Amino acid sequence: MRVQIASEPGRPGRANEDFAAAAPGLCLVIDGAGAPADVGTGCVHSVAWYARQLGGLLLAAAADVGLGLGEALAVGIERVNAMHAWTCDLRHPGSPSATVALARVNGERLEHLVLSDAVLVLDRVDQAPAVVTDDRLAEVITRLDEPGRLPAVGSDEHTRRLRDRVERLAAYRNQPGGFWVASTKPEAAREALVGSTPLVELNGVALLSDGASRLADRFGLLGWPELLAVLRKGGPAELIARTREAEASDPVGARWPRGKASDDASAVWWTTSD
Fold first, then answer.
1. Most exposed residue of 53, 135, 149, 221, measured as fewest CB within 10 angstroms of its CB?
2. Rounded to whole angstroms, how far apart are CA atoms 76 and 82?
3. Domain ranges of the chain
4. Alpha-carbon dihedral 231, 234, 235, 239, rounded to 10 degrees
5. Is-above-0.70 flag for pTM?
6. What is the rounded average pLDDT for all residues in the chain?
7. For 181, left (φ over 0), alpha (ψ -120 to 50), or beta?
8. Architecture of the structural domain at 2-271
9. Which residues, listed in sequence order, are joined to residue 105 by a DSSP beta bridge?
10. Are 76 and 94 in contact (CB under 8 A)?
């Protein structure tokens, strides 16, 4: 199988809180969940640090095909906990967290795992794409958000609303009836969406952070077959470049209301051809 990867921060000079990587028979995208600078986390480490550590440790755990992908994710979370339990308050509700998309070849099948709103798209032979993502976070946000459209991105009111959202989401994170992300609770891995597909039924698979899936699931400029066509022709870098063009055409979120004008974006395109 052939792998192409692209990942870039939402703004030049800003830390990229995504992490995308591949190893033999494995690929993943980790999307760190950033928070306003004045919202406490109980942790001395950055979200980018958390995403990188979890990504590397998850690749190592998932290399053991005798371990289920959910088990591997739980192991990865436990190992990151061990790295900073003595410096940080792992019980803090704002502790750094991340979404996960992971794919692994095991024999003649492709296994997948998705936790939270990362997106995995199976490019199936002679069938429509199968899109795997968890919409529980979006459902909670819909319940919590104030009525009406978000104000202009970058405005004081927009900043206030986002800060309020982050603070209120803490009560729902990794809780029954809320949403689940990778953070400090290994049991969150049991809430991941998992499955497997025979390799002969696939042309490839795309793993996307929500900053790289925007053209389809937020902006509606592409359907999933069209998004896969972009990946086939131009690869992940082309998909991100097109996303940046769309974001730049609507810098204050008038057409597409959103939390960030331009988000960190990561895409992995893994094809079955050599």
1. 149
2. 10
3. 2-271
4. -70
5. yes
6. 93
7. beta
8. 4-Layer Sandwich (3.60)
9. 110
10. no
